[in-house]
Amino acid sequence: MFCTTIIPTIGRDTLEKSVLSVLNQQFTAGDFEVIVVNDSGVPLPEAEWQKSPCVKVITTNKRERSVARNTGAALGQGTYFHFLDDDDWVEPNFLDEMYRFTLKFPQAVWLYSGAVLLDERNHKQIELFSGAQGNGFVQAMSGEWIPLQSSLISAKAFFEVGGFNHSMKVSEDLDLCRRMGLRGDFAGLSKPLAFILRGPNWKTSSDSSQSVASSLRTRELILNEPGVFQRLVDSAKTSYWRGRVTRFYLASIIWNLKRKKILPVISRSFFGLISIPAAGWSALSGTFWKSLRSDHITTTIERDTPAESAT
Questions:
Q1: Which of 1, 21, 202, 241 could staple 236 via S-S, CB 3.0–4.6 A?
Q2: What are residue 309's DSSP bridge partners?
Q3: What local confidence, expressed as pLDDT, does residue 55 receive?
Q4: What is the largest CA-CA distance in the chain?
């Protein structure tokens, strides 16, 4: 089984389009399956796609997306997991393109394509492509968004990091991306193969007001992991990204001081100090210090208007 697509749903009308975008794939190099996880609390209306031998429908009964996705993954047989929301869809050649991409990067734990963000009328708003390649840990820790909808994630690596964190109600995808980036490499294909429906009036199940706090929380948890500092240093290839590494630790010092957590403050202070000589000649550049002082501006979003600030 090459791929398992897992679609958690709250019963949106767009579910059928999401499922059919996978079932109608022009892909013959391997097997694939779709697991629809009904988390709506009520039975799904009967539909023709439910009769497909490639589809399984299971129920988690309002346990939120992380539980729904992990439940689907536990039943999945694919070498790779593809997490698609019930209001998003993929191109008919998504699996074919991504399959050939996995052959080029068999060691990558997270492979992804570009994605298109659409409004409620299916009009293109922006294109998304983070550009993270190889060790992209520093980009993930900076908040660069690699959409699940356009990604294939190694099932083996997914279980090794523990899957989605059930305690995360928002930013659970970013948390997973960071934990995967700590342990393995990314590979990105710039061609847009996934479509994400997110207009200004679109009703989302996420509480976006909690996203910044949740992002900071997951970053704190990951900074406690062994090997984080070296992985960050190894991933920071330019003066800008080396400045980000130092900023992570300085921001963490402030975060922990506010909560009177002395031991983390001591640890972060140590690594924050040694991150400066670890940056080498970059520590003498203006780019390094500007990066340390400033908010990160995402490179994921491609559009005509100025880029938005990322966490």
A1: 241
A2: 297
A3: 98
A4: 64
